[in-house]
Amino acid sequence: RSTLFPYTTLFRSAQINILKSHGRAISESTLISNGYCICLGRAGQGMPTRVQNAKIALLDFDLKKYRMAMGVEIKVEDPKELEKIRQKEMDITRDRINCLVKAGANVVLTTKGMDDLSIKYLVESGAIGCRRVDKKDIRRIAKATGGQVLLTLGQLDGEERVDPSCLGSAEEVYEAPVGDNDHIFIQGCKVSRATTVLLRGATEFQLDEMERSMHDSLCAVSKALEFNSCVPGGGACETALNIYLEDFARQLGSREQLAVAEFAEALLTI
User: Is the pTM of this model over 0.90?
Assistant: First the structure.
């Protein structure tokens, strides 16, 4: 049971991601071991397609040009002051990107959006950025890579900075096309094993059926590993009992033998 514990933990922690991509044959479905995949591409084409020794920043806020809160009104009489305000808004975005880069982040994943200004700074720093990552995926990535999902960069002292220990770690992060869409692959997660099953099929309907079958299989394997036992189905119990009774019937007299043999035949019919 101790040897099965890591696999039981893998199933329980739901670190098995199932992705569907129509096209190609069912036999070309692949298993990405110790890796996590999300159906998203880079936010900007100028970003690198592959990063080694990745440090992943997981964000749950926008990386956009800073704007004043609703209800705040600024009266400016000098046009030069207006330009300074606009420049300050851009500097705030630049400083936030610099905080992530100084902490060592070369991959930035956010559940919200990124504007062109943020993408420009990430391209200049040589980092990969992805926007609108599903919250479920970003939580799983955080668990697998040992990172933390950051709700803000603000600290108790009022400054904005990033603790390097909050970044997730992986051996490699790269973008590759799968079917009609680009996918981001995170290989060699630091803390725990994550696995992605990439299903391929001709149609969306076929992929949905494959996903349901895969879910049933994972549930069955999960229960077998959890309880370290299983009950065979598909008539296996009745067939085994039929074989036993046929052997037992040969040890009896003629009339009793016929009765037991008929009962065994009835079990096989069932």
Answer: no
